[in-house]
């Protein structure tokens, strides 16, 4: 055995005896069973005790979670008394309360954790906080007094958004002649059980692990003894390899102790989870609530880095408009972005933009893209989907890292994370998405002017009328009908027709007649474009009995 191992064993044995002495010093005979086990053990105790009191050695401290990789940060949580987070939550627990809610961290690591305890066999004043010397400080204790084996209580943790690689400690899993500790742990994501967590004991040989339904169960083997909270050798580490938004823990009186077990207890603390150092998300708004055919407007994309460090390299955004007749205006150079535009194989237009300017931790940058809506569009809605990627975000190296851009919808806009180490949101395949659905309307301003170039009419002469119909836009005006009301004092010939621009408009019927033009009206086909005119010229003879 290594010298360090011998020292560690001496420390563990001596420190445990010392704690037993402090807690039970009144009952000398009970304590003496430990202290007088042999003379060497007694010497070890006094050596260790002296070192503690002189401050020459430190108490055992468990290492913090090492589950996070180089691209992730570790967020931690405990039940420190009067420890107030930056979001205003005091992490205390009123003894006997069955529920509490805690705010954890800010920015990328922010979460709200709800703890709920349930069960009929809690002892009075439980759950409560404890502060075991030499073990995980500021822990939440569950003490039960089961009247029969297999009775249980539960502790449920609910995260307001899923957390990746959740880890925590369970303290004091032990046994005696009158009780046996059993714990079941399971995790869930959107109501579906995840892969069962790993349960790692400090001394694996003291426990048996089995799968029970969706839970991993750890049972304390008989004969290991009553550890006490001060002994880290009876601690268990729980590790979830998949994201979870809910964890359920059941504390059970073991079946190996028949009849009425004596009170038994366990505690929890040292929570941690992983978040990416760089975590990009994007939101989008359109410049107007509705798009008008023939008008120009903008999309405003706000890219946010929810990570704890600034982005590196190139941050990219791909934006696709799925609507006939809606396209990005080119060229445009929205500083500090550089963009390339091109129509894809379907009815849409695409912008691929990138920027080398770093986005600070918790910072934002804005990308404004100008779009035009064709006056002739027949689409009723403009759908715009965009994704952000790159920038050193480990989960979004490419536009396809978190699923096709076509998967972006209103339900997953502004989600963080994505990929194998997904963090936050509901849909694990579409992080980094933005989505905008904008209705398209048509608005045309139609005018008409009629003139014959004369202020008076003389009976027996012919006068020529010029009738000009105009669409001042901005939208085309399909289905336009034009009329010229007849007058009993005029006898008109078939009108001639011309459009501006030339051939932009034809008439239906193609062959005009004075009757159809003046009585039933004619259609301008195939549409009446914005900023065009339809001009009719008609010669009319003036009768003496007619009206001017």
What does this structure look like?
It is elongated, with a radius of gyration of 39 Å. The model is unreliable at 1-66, 82-88 and 419-428 (pLDDT under 50). The chain is 9% helix and 41% strand. The chain is mainly β and 548 residues long. Helix 1 packs across helix 3. The strands form five sheets. Strands 1, 2, 3, 4, 5, 6, 7, 8, 9, 10, 11, 12, 13 and 14 form a 14-stranded antiparallel beta sheet that branches. Strands 16-24-23-18-21-20 form a six-stranded mixed beta sheet, with no helix packed on it. Strands 25, 26, 28, 29 and 32 form a five-stranded antiparallel beta sheet that branches.
Q: Briefly note the structural class of the backbone.
A: mainly beta
First and last CA, distance:
124 Å
Which residues sit in consecutive blocks of at least 5 with pLDDT less than 50?
1-66, 82-88, 419-428
On the 0-100 scale, what is the average pLDDT? 82
Main β-sheet: number of strands, strand sense, barrel status?
14 strands, antiparallel
Helix content class: under 10%
């Amino acid at each position: 055995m290594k010298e360090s191992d011998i020292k560690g064993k001496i420390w563990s044995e001596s420190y445990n005896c010392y704690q037993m002495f402090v807690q039970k010093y009144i009952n000398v005979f009970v304590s003496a069973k430990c202290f007088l086990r042999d003379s060497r053990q007694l010497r070890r105790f006094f050596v260790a005790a002296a070192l503690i009191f002189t401050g020459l050695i430190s108490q055992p401290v468990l290492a913090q979670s090492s589950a996070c990789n180089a691209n992730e940060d570790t967020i931690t949580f405990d039940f420190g008394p009067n420890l107030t987070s930056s979001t205003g939550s005091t992490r205390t627990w009123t003894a006997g309360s069955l529920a509490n809610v805690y705010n954890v961290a800010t920015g990328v690591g922010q979460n709200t954790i709800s703890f709920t305890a349930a069960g009929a066999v809690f002892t009075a004043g439980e759950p409560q906080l404890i502060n075991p010397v030499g073990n995980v400080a500021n822990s939440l204790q569950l003490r039960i007094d089961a009247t029969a084996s297999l009775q249980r209580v539960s502790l449920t943790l609910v995260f307001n958004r899923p957390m990746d690689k959740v880890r925590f400690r369970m303290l004091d899993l032990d046994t005696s002649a009158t009780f046996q500790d059993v714990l079941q742990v399971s995790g869930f994501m959107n109501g579906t059980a995840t892969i069962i967590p790993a349960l790692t004991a400090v001394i694996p040989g003291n426990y048996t692990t089995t799968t029970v339904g969706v839970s991993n169960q750890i049972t304390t083997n008989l004969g290991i003894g009553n550890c006490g909270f001060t002994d880290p050798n009876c601690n268990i580490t729980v590790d979830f390899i998949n994201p979870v938004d809910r964890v359920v823990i059941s504390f059970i009186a073991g079946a190996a102790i028949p009849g009425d077990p004596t009170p038994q207890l366990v505690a929890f603390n040292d929570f941690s989870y992983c978040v990416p150092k760089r975590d990009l998300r994007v939101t989008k708004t359109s410049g107007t609530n509705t798009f008008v055919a023939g008008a120009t407007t903008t999309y405003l994309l706000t890219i946010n880095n929810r990570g704890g460090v600034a982005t590196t390299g190139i941050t990219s955004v791909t934006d696709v408009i799925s609507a006939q007749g809606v396209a990005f205006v080119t060229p445009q150079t929205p500083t500090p972005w550089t963009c390339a535009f091109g129509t894809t194989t379907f009815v849409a237009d695409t912008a691929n933009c990138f920027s080398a300017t770093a986005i600070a931790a918790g910072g934002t940058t804005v990308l404004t893209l100008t779009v035009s809506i064709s006056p002739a569009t027949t689409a009723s809605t403009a759908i715009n989907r965009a994704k952000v990627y790159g920038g050193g975000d480990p989960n979004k190296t490419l536009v396809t890292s978190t699923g096709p851009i076509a998967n972006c919808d209103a339900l997953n806009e502004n989600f963080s994370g994505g990929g194998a180490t997904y963090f936050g949101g509901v849909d694990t395949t579409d992080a980094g998405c933005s989505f905008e659905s904008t209705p398209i309307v048509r608005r045309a301003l139609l005018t008409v002017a009629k003139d014959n170039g004369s202020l008076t009419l003389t009976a027996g002469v012919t006068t020529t009328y010029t009738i000009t119909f105009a669409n001042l836009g901005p939208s085309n005006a399909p289905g336009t009908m034009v009329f010229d009301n007849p007058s009993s004092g005029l006898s008109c010939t078939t009108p001639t027709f011309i459009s501006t621009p030339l051939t932009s408009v034809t008439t239906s019927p193609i062959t005009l007649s004075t009757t159809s033009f003046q009585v039933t009206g004619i259609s301008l086909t195939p549409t009446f474009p914005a900023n065009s005119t339809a001009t009719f010229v008609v010669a009319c003879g003036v009768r003496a009995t007619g009206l001017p």
